[in-house]
Every structure is written in structure tokens, then in C-alpha cells.
Write a structure and sequence with these properties.
5 helices; alpha+beta; 196 residues; eight-stranded mixed sheet; globular; Aminopeptidase
């Protein structure tokens, strides 16, 4: 199996995720997402994918610390990247590339015909998907609103009103939503064959 880790390859190795990795996995994910459109996507525990036939959860580890993550859920002939993240201090070393190489090897011969991922507008992530042979096949909007604008939405009966909103919207309404809400992202489905 060929790994493309280019800096300090002897200090980073790839293996299956273990339950003892959870806190380090969470820290890696938070730090990796901090300067992206997913900066507030914080998880207190590692998410479990319940609707998958199986999952492949990999970590890149340096000195017993998780510095890279690639979690894939397999549903029939479709595999979906649920999380891909590299600790900021370990970027541009080929870690994400190597994690993907391992996933592609494991998917070979399994009947999976498509590997996809959903991502937003981060240029670095989009460039990585492009380099790795993914193409955009679908898109829609992620719309966020904070306290001031959420109160303009329909107020439920009871003691409160909405204080925050996260919604999906059709791409054709992008201009309108960008003019009305603070955070609007294009969510893109990136897709490729798992064949090398």
C-alpha cells in the first residue's frame, strides 16, 4: 500500500480508529474545522452513523495523537465520506491523500461504485477534492441565521421564539438568502469512482 505522506513519514502512521482515540479525534476535528465554513460544527462525542451497512474509520496518528481523520459510511454501492480532517499543524504533508489511498484500497472489490462527500465553499477543501478526482454533481444552500433575524420567522406557540436557524434551501434562491441572512453556503456533493 502506497502512502503519500511527504514530511516526517516516520512520525505519522495510518490505522483504524479505536475507541481510545475519541478525545484526540474530537480535538483534531475541532481544530481542523476552526478556519472553515464548518467552524461551529463541534461534536462532544464521535458521531455514530446508524444507517450504514458498515463504516471505515481511519486515523493518522503522530506520537499517539490523532492528526488526520477519514470516516466513510458504506450504504450498498455508495460510500460517503462523513468526516475528513487534518490537524492544522500537519497540513500539506499528504496525510489526507494517504488516508484516501487506504480507503480506496479497502473499497476495491467491495461492489462500491461511487464515493461521495458533501462540502461547502472552502477553497482548500474544494481544491483537494478536485485533485483527488472528485467532481461536483449536486448543490443546494445551507442557511444560518442568528438571534436578530431568526425572530422574524414564524414563532411557535409557547414560551419562546426561535433564536437560531439552520436550514436547507434551493440553489436558485441564493441571491435572496445571501441578502437576508448572515451565513449562506453552497453545499456541494463531490463524487468520484472509487477505482484508482
Amino acid at each position: 500500500m502506497t502512502h503519500r505522506i511527504t514530511a516526517h513519514p516516520e512520525t505519522v502512521h495510518i490505522r483504524d480508529y479505536q475507541s481510545a482515540d475519541e478525545q484526540s479525534w474530537l480535538r483534531c476535528r475541532v481544530l481542523a474545522f476552526l478556519n472553515t465554513c464548518y467552524y461551529d460544527s463541534v461534536e462532544p462525542i464521535k458521531p455514530v452513523v446508524d444507517d450504514a451497512d458498515r463504516t471505515i474509520d481511519l486515523v493518522a496518528v503522530a506520537d499517539d495523537i490523532v492528526v488526520g481523520i477519514l470516516d466513510v459510511a458504506v450504504r450498498g454501492d455508495l460510500a460517503t465520506i462523513e468526516t475528513v480532517a487534518v490537524h492544522p499543524d500537519y497540513r500539506r504533508r499528504g496525510i489526507a491523500d494517504s488516508l484516501l489511498d487506504v480507503i480506496l484500497t479497502r473499497l476495491d472489490g467491495t461492489g462500491v461504485i461511487s464515493l461521495d462527500a458533501w462540502t461547502r465553499e472552502d477553497a482548500e477543501a474544494l481544491a483537494w477534492y478536485d485533485r483527488e478526482g472528485f467532481v461536483q454533481t449536486e448543490q443546494y444552500l445551507h442557511v444560518y441565521s442568528g438571534y436578530d433575524r431568526a425572530t422574524k420567522l414564524a414563532t411557535p406557540t409557547g414560551p419562546s421564539h426561535p433564536v437560531m436557524l439552520f436550514a436547507h434551501a434551493k440553489i436558485e434562491h441564493e441571491a435572496r438568502f445571501r441578502s437576508e441572512f448572515e451565513r449562506v453556503y453552497i453545499c456541494r456533493r463531490m463524487q468520484r469512482s472509487p477505482a484508482r
